[in-house]
Design a protein that fits this description.
The chain is α/β, with parallel strands linked by helices and 257 residues long. 35% of the residues lie in helices and 28% in strands. It contains 9 helices and 9 strands.
Amino acid sequence: MTLCTSPRPAPFVWPDHEAAFYAEHLAASNYVERVGGCLLQLLGPQRQLLDIGAGSGILGRHLLAPSGQWTVVEPNAYMGRCIERLAAREPAVSLSLHPGLWQDIGDLGLAPTQTVLCANIPVSDGQAQAFLERVRPLASGTLVWNLPAQEGPRTYCLSGFLPPQLHRSDMTPGYQLTLAELPASARPDEIHFTEWAFSTLFATPEAALMHFREKLGALDGAALGLLERHLQDHLQPAPGGWLASAPKRAASLLWHA
């Protein structure tokens, strides 16, 4: 494995406990099975993959051929350790890990790669075209940009489990916001949609209540009562605890060179 460093230290992105929660429960959801399965069918196993904003790495690793070359750009240190552990399970995989944001790409000396994967990278309003201009030249074959497509909240992984009165978030599918920022000449060649669900198993209903109260912040009496009733009605008993599941839809935007 080659460890590459960006010219300036990557900024602190997520607290470790949030990164750990996301990585653990994404792995336990059907994300890789559904979204990864769709992309693997479209693209086939990848001998070389540039994975920008890889998160815990489970999607990129799923697409990689057994002895593939995996170049990763990921700013979060916890996620970087997850990626290193994934790569270590298959010694034939060659991993090159770059701690950095997508804004750092021009400073990393990355070579064009047949396939570039960008999964759920948060791009601030007005930055979609700049992001695309930065990453598209790195794809000598296909660029894949995965974005949320559900008509529901995008604020955090389980927000879609909650009623709108509690999450109080914009419900516009994220990929539509991105497409609206792109000129006609930059529109993707293909868009593929995949249904999946982010699911979390809580040990007790009280643990679920504590989690959502932390996420939602200070709640007045009416909102807290609504949250408690919602959990009573919608948490599903399951082996080992109580399941909360948020429906998701992925839009895989593809550009071909």
